[in-house]
Amino acid sequence: MTKQAIFFLSLLHVFLFHCTITCAQAPDITQILDKYGDFKVLIRLLKNTGVADQLNGELAKSNTGYTFFAAPDKAFSELRTGTINKLSDLQKVQFLQFHILATYVTLTNFQTLSNPVPTQAGDTTAGQFPLNVTSSDREVHLSTGVVNATLGTTLYSDNNLAVYQVDKVLLPLDIFSDYKPPEAVEESTPPLAATVDKSGAVTLAMHAMFVLLGIAVNVGAVLGL
Questions:
Q1: How far is it between the farthest Cα atoms of the chain?
Q2: Could you list the residue ranges that cross the membrane (predicted)?
Q3: What global pTM score does this model have?
Q4: Closest to 39 (Cα-Cα) out of 179, 118, 152, 145
Q5: Per-residue pLDDT of the chain (225 residues; tens, 9 = 90+)
Q6: How far is the C-alpha of 172 from the C-alpha of 99, rounded, in Å?
Q7: Residue 215 domain-assigned (yes or no)
Q8: For residues 71-83, b (16+ Cβ closer than 10 Å) or e, as one string?
Q9: Total structural domains within the chain
Q10: How far apart are CA 102 and CA 77, in angstroms?
Q11: What is the CATH number of the domain that holds 161?
């Protein structure tokens, strides 16, 4: 084999090795969420705060993987107006990191976690950002001290990253200790008069007519005397 052939084989080996590394790149959290179309608010927050780039970078070198809890747009719409916008930049980062566990957790492994479960937001040993997880009959519930959420659909899983949908935005107690959910709007009961149907109105009219007729007869009788 000539030196030229050996040289080209070496280049081919380097090229194939580079392709292997490129093809095995870590998943992109925003691309995963974008496929579903229901996470526009969350995607915007992840991009604006830099948390998306941070998570994607850590996924590329992680040995333990990550778990991400994704709240859909509907869950954000149920929050009191201005709940997220009023946060400082640091609080927004901590709020998003509260939705991230620095370990890959399957549905069946949630029951093995010890409470409080540490998140990327803070050190639970110091009492920061507590997240409690309970699991039973394949149902997983999350409690932040402010809201109680339930785990829903598995959006993505590849043994390095698990993304689960949750029905509520996870509001950490350290940031939202004074949070009050918006009051539910109660439908007012229509007044009684408005509930009378046409048949009722006709009955009342007939009754009034008979009363008036009786009065007229009595008056006529009196005058005839």
A1: 144
A2: 204-224
A3: 0.72
A4: 152
A5: 555 544 444 544 444 444 444 445 668 999 999 999 999 999 999 999 999 999 999 999 999 999 999 999 999 999 999 999 999 999 999 999 999 999 999 999 999 999 999 999 987 776 789 999 999 877 999 999 999 999 999 999 999 999 999 999 999 999 999 998 887 655 555 544 444 444 444 444 444 454 444 544 453 444 454
A6: 9
A7: no
A8: bbeebbeebeeeb
A9: 1
A10: 28
A11: 2.30.180.10
Residue 83 near residue 75, CB atoms below 8 Å = no
Residue 2: inside a domain: no
Crossing angle for the helix pair 51-59 and 40-49, to the nearest 10 degrees: 80
Q: Strands across the sheet with 148-157, in order?
A: 100-101, 66-70, 161-166, 148-157, 139-143, 132-136
- Domain of 32 in residue numbering reads as 22-166
Beta pairing class for 161-166 and 139-143: unpaired
What backbone torsions phi and psi does residue 136 show, to the nearest 5 degrees? -160, 140
**CA proximity to 132, closest of 141, 123, 178, 96:** 141
Number of Cβ within a 10 Å radius of residue 143? 17
Residue 108 belongs to a domain: yes
Q: Is residue 67 assigned to a domain?
A: yes
